[in-house]
Amino acid sequence: MIRDFEYLAPKTLEEALTLLSKYGEECKIIAGGQSLLVLMRQGLVAPKYLISIKGVSELNYINYDAKKGLRIGALTPHRAIENSPVIQNGFTALAEMERRLASIQTRNWGTIGGNLCHADPAGDPAPVLVVLKATLKMQSLDGERTMASEDFSLDYFETALGPGELLTEIQVPVVSPHTGTAYTKFNVIESDLATVGVAVSIILSSSNSACQDVRIALGASAPTPMRAKQAEEVLRGKKITDALLTEAGQIASTEADPISDIYASEEYRRELVKVLVKRVGKEALARAKQA
Ligand SMILES: Cc1cc2nc3c(=O)[nH]c(=O)nc-3n(C[C@H](O)[C@H](O)[C@H](O)COP(=O)(O)OP(=O)(O)OC[C@H]3O[C@@H](n4cnc5c(N)ncnc54)[C@H](O)[C@@H]3O)c2cc1C
């Protein structure tokens, strides 16, 4: 049962930050409520004040600038990202990831910012944002700061957000030429969280022969979304072959630090990392060759 709380509904960012600063640990921000309400119903979270930011429309947008790149307001629902032509055309893996996140109903309500702030290591957006080199903007009454998305999650359900801070924007740089990015997850129930999720981004040299740069990010494979940096080294600077992708998958599976739970054992998750890194790497490579 949900305990009683006082509901506050600011309409501007300034109002939201003021309330957050005023009520501190006694309050909780709610965006789409798709993760928080589950915790409140279970009695795991019982805020005295619930600050709904759903009406703060200035945080709901998708903008693209050829120099600055993509800017997504933290309150943008998953469904808007999935259906954005700019994202479908220029950031395929982001749209692809959103299509597999939960159900349409959840995607209509749930926001990208809420997903990142919930910091479930099995969340879908984080690995894709990490390989896209995304930066996150946070704001409080004291000002704003940005941080690489890969540094945002600190532990299970714990983020780098400080007291009084809201996540306000996701910033994705312009994608370099000859880049291919892909994401997939394995899940037992379609529209559920990942048992393991893998995102890979590959930048090829201008002649399309060697791998100039690569990022591999794993979800549901450690307490936070993580980069498989040793696996990346297997590919960086080389002409990528099937054999190298197999080796990268093997190394990523040893770098991962997964748990055993009701969905999968640790061993099974390591096996999934091995298989999916190769599979997603192949797809990213094929896309890079056509980019
Ligand atoms: C049935 C179901 C299936 C799901 N399947 C998936 C799935 O397949 N993949 C996946 O990744 N997720 C899945 N989820 C999780 C959920 O969809 C996402 O986590 C959702 O995006 C959360 O966003 P929200 O806006 O609803 O966040 P809320 O529930 O409103 O908030 C989540 C947390 O973030 C904080 N918060 C929200 N916005 C901000 C902000 N701007 N700044 C600071 N703190 C903030 C809140 O205080 C709270 O702690 C599923 C959820 C359900 C109910």
Indicate the topology.
Blueprint: E1 6-8, H1 13-23, E2 27-30, H2 36-41, E3 49-52, E4 62-65, E5 69-73, H3 78-82, H4 85-90, H5 92-99, H6 104-109, H7 112-118, H8 125-131, E6 135-140, E7 143-148, E8 153-155, E9 158-159, E10 166-172, E11 179-186, E12 196-204, E13 211-219, E14 226-227, H9 229-235, H10 242-255, H11 266-290
Parallel strand pairs: 1-3, 2-3
Antiparallel strand pairs: 4-5, 5-10, 6-7, 6-10, 8-9, 11-12, 12-13, 13-14
Helix pairs in contact: 9-10, 10-11
Trace the largest sheet across and list its strands.
Answer: 4-5-10-6-7
The structural class is alpha+beta
> What would CATH call the architecture of the largest domain?
2-Layer Sandwich
Per the CATH scheme, the topology name of the largest domain is Uridine Diphospho-n-acetylenolpyruvylglucosamine Reductase, domain 3
Main sheet attributes: strand count, strand direction, barrel closure: 5 strands, antiparallel
Strand content: 15-25%
Number of structural domains = 3
Q: What series of H and E elements makes up the topology? A: EHEHEEEHHHHHHEEEEEEEEEHHH
Query: How many β strands by DSSP?
Result: 14
CATH level 1 name of the largest domain: Alpha Beta
What overall geometry do the principal axes of the alpha carbons give?
globular
Enumerate the spans where pLDDT stays under 50 for 5 or more consecutive residues: none
How many DSSP H or I helices? 11
